[in-house]
Design goal:
four-stranded parallel beta sheet; 10 strands; 10% strand; globular
Length: 417
């Protein structure tokens, strides 16, 4: 990574890179050859990169939607809106300003998986190009220049760094299959199971999960339901009242919604929304476990990868044994229809920013409860955007596309509150 230091020239260099990086993003959104653009950027060929962008045709509406995200963080939304019909060279011109994000120091950056490392030709000791994905997450885009004599190739790990068990490759990723004695896995499963959007066990924290693993020998989620207040008193920071409160929260979680339970299981690629979609479609745990790949992919937004993750999860004996232990402990997931009205039927609504009284999860739950579909991205299919304070690029895109923007008060009127 280039060292910013305190030298003005280095800052200028990084500013130039930021301009080009966003130009590459614009080229990608416009359906051009992103690999070529990245290659030009990594070679430092600014002239050819500019020429590549300048050959783009007039911005189509779909391209303008995506381009709005590119420049939103630079405070250039109004200019973009005024030039939606401009050529891509105009977009590059908009980005070639002094109004760029500040230079920041970065210590860690993302590489997605080993295939990503090979594709980007990254090695130990090489210089790399960095971008801030969505203006937040540092991401390595590729190496700078040709390999040097002091570089070392990055070798894929063969054993889990936590427990020493062999790793198994599935798709693009490496997995440790040791569920029982791999501590980070067990602690993460306990924390996820107890989290607010899952079983919602109040006062349970990551530190609590680690204490339960180290001091009380808990290895999976079903073990939680055999705990007593006296068991917890040996843990650091637990007095009688805190122990009783946690046990009461665990007891309360025995009666839960099916979608929360499915999310709590930690099925790979199944988030909170997908868990709800699965609950709405199958309405019982047994029906979901018996579902075929075809039945799963018939659900909107459930593709082949998600469907395969679900069927594979329920094919493992250890997962079914853990689920049975939960059911034997009195955990009773029940399907609960959340539909209160059909006021928002057929409407896709995006929530952005900070609302006066509702969290994002609460707002999206209300949208679903009144027949609407909450979405995380703005498109031509979006009916309206529910925006609060500090709304970002989603608001900018909505305004650029002429999509109605409402506040919380108007939203409550729409659902009859």
């Amino acid at each position: 990574m280039r060292n910013t230091g305190d030298v003005g020239g280095a800052e200028v260099e990084l500013r130039t890179i930021a301009i080009e990086e966003r130009g590459v993003t614009a080229a990608f959104f416009l359906g051009k050859d992103v690999d070529l653009a990245l290659e030009l950027l990594m070679r430092g060929n600014r002239t050819r990169l500019a020429e590549n962008l300048a050959t783009l045709d007039v911005l189509a509406l779909d391209a303008a939607e995506q381009a709005a995200d590119v420049v939103a963080s630079l405070g250039l939304v109004e200019q973009l809106t005024e030039h939606l019909d401009a050529g891509a060279d105009r977009v590059l011109g908009l980005l070639d300003t002094d109004d760029l994000q500040r230079v920041v120091d970065m210590q860690n950056a993302t590489l997605n998986n080993y295939d990503d490392i090979l594709r980007k030709k990254v090695a130990v000791g090489c210089e790399v190009w960095i971008r801030r994905s969505n203006d937040v997450i540092p991401e390595i885009m590729g190496r700078v220049g040709e390999p040097g004599p002091d570089e070392r190739p990055i070798e894929p790990p063969t054993v889990c760094p936590a427990c020493g068990e062999p790793l198994e490759r599935r798709g693009a990723h490496l997995f440790c299959m040791n569920r029982k004695t791999c501590k980070p896995q067990a602690v993460a499963r306990l924390s996820h199971f107890a989290s607010r959007n899952a079983m919602d066990i109040d006062t349970f924290s990551d530190k609590t999960a680690e204490l339960l693993y180290d001091r009380l020998g808990l290895r999976d989620c079903a073990d939680l339901y055999s705990l007593t207040a006296n068991d917890l008193l040996v843990l650091d920071g637990f007095k009688q009242k805190r122990a009783e409160n946690l046990i009461a929260a665990i007891e309360k979680s025995r009666h839960c919604a099916l979608d929360a339970f499915l999310f709590a299981l930690g099925i790979p690629n199944v988030g909170r929304k997908t868990a709800k979609d699965l609950a709405d479609r199958f309405r019982s745990l047994d029906a979901l476990k018996a579902a075929s790949q075809e039945e799963l992919t018939a659900i909107p937004d459930v593709g082949e990868i998600v469907a395969a993750s679900i069927t594979e999860y329920f094919s493992f004996p250890e997962n079914n044994q853990m689920i049975q232990r939960l059911l034997d402990a009195g955990v009773s997931p029940v399907y609960e229809s959340a539909v209160q009205s059909h006021a928002l039927d057929g409407m896709t609504i995006v929530v952005t920013g900070t609302l006066p009284t509702l969290s994002r999860d609460e707002a999206e739950a209300l949208i679903a409860a009144h027949g609407g579909k909450p979405s995380g991205s703005v498109s031509k299919k979006t009916a309206c955007v529910l925006a609060g304070e500090k709304a970002g690029s989603k608001l900018a895109k909505a305004e650029a596309l002429g999509i109605p923007v409402i506040d919380e008060a108007r939203f409550r009127e729409m659902i009859g509150e």
